[in-house]
Design a protein that fits this description.
Blueprint: H1 5-36, H2 40-45, H3 58-63, H4 67-99, H5 106-118, H6 123-132, H7 140-143, H8 150-162, H9 165-173, H10 178-189, H11 191-206, H12 210-215, H13 224-238, H14 241-244, H15 255-286
Helix pairs in contact: 1-15, 4-8, 4-11, 4-13, 9-10, 11-15, 13-15
Family: Belongs to the binding-protein-dependent transport system permease family.
Subcellular location: Cell membrane
Transmembrane segments: 12-37, 75-96, 108-128, 140-160, 181-206, 257-277
Length: 292
């Protein structure tokens, strides 16, 4: 079929608008990366620039200059891996149990979980609960309060309800128990959903900040985001004119450059992992969201 001139102009206009929107979206990310590699003295002279004349790793050297950074990376990495695995196990197991018709008291459990979505107890009750359980200044204080999500449980429940009952009955005829059905049948068929939810859990654990401020007092257990915030505060204080006057100006790192480098460092692991889970992302977010 021949394309008319009006259709060609319309397509060209669409491509131009989409390209413009893409550039507007990518420009802030490009700016963050470029400023993080910009020489501090050049940034102080020209704060708004896209192509610096002098590149520098000063901001990254400042971030990696302390042993606490590596410890914080280890804590956040442990939370992102171990916490995500625990969250996926609890979420999928709870969703599978709630999807079974033979579960006694299922309505009560569903209402109880739904209430957690509607009513948030607040910071003080959560703090008192963590303190009463003896989890203060422990890595479990960063995992257990965020172990599962009621919304993800309902999505996974709807997904398991769409799986034919005959599949479970066939597995039980072959000798599988309820745990065996869950491990050998349900988990393999829900890989896409687990990958999508796992990405969200990993991002949440990696970006743990407020819980780290509330529950963690030890320097060795501080998550990465808490440490980066402390370093930003330190850099801001060092950039104060009253403080900088006592120091060599060439050795003062602008806090804005530190912020950009901190954003790059904290975002890089998730950016690296996301392409490997992208093929599961759309499909995983759709399962269980529409019940046919």
């Amino acid at each position: 079929m021949r394309t008319s001139l009006a259709s060609k102009l319309f397509n060209a206009l669409n491509y131009a608008m989409l390209t413009l929107f893409a550039l507007v979206t990518l420009l802030p990310f490009i700016y963050v990366v470029i400023i993080s590699f910009t020489d501090p003295s050049e940034y102080l002279a020209k704060p708004l620039l896209l192509i610096p004349e002098h590149w520098s790793l000063t901001a990254y050297k400042y971030i990696f200059s302390t042993d606490a950074f590596l410890k914080a990376m280890g804590v956040s990495g442990f939370l992102a891996v171990f916490g995500t695995v625990c969250s996926l196990i609890v979420t999928s197991a709870l969703a599978y149990v709630l999807s079974r018709k033979r579960l006694k008291g299922k309505k009560f459990f569903l209402i109880t979980i739904l209430l957690t979505m509607l009513f948030n107890p607040g910071m003080i009750p959560n703090y008192l609960l963590v303190d009463s359980l003896g989890l203060m200044d422990s890595v479990w204080a960063l995992i257990l309060p965020a172990l599962t999500s009621a919304w993800y449980v309902f999505l996974m429940r709807n997904f398991y309800q769409e799986i034919p009952d005959e599949l479970e009955e066939a597995a039980k005829i072959d000798g599988c128990s309820d745990v065996g059905v869950f491990i050998r049948i349900m988990l393999p068929v829900s890989v896409s959903a687990l990958a999508a939810f796992g990405l969200f859990y990993a991002v949440a654990y990696w970006n743990t900040y407020f819980s780290g401020v509330l529950y963690i007092n030890s320097d060795a257990l501080r998550p990465l985001q808490v440490l980066l915030q402390m370093m930003l505060i330190s850099a801001t204080q060092m950039a104060d004119p009253s403080v900088a006057a006592m120091l060599d100006s060439e050795r003062t790192v602008p806090p804005e450059v530190i912020k950009m480098a901190a954003v790059v460092v904290s975002s890089l692991p998730i950016v690296i992992v996301y392409p490997f889970l992208q093929k599961y992302f759309v499909k995983g977010m759709m399962v269980g969201s529409v019940k046919g």
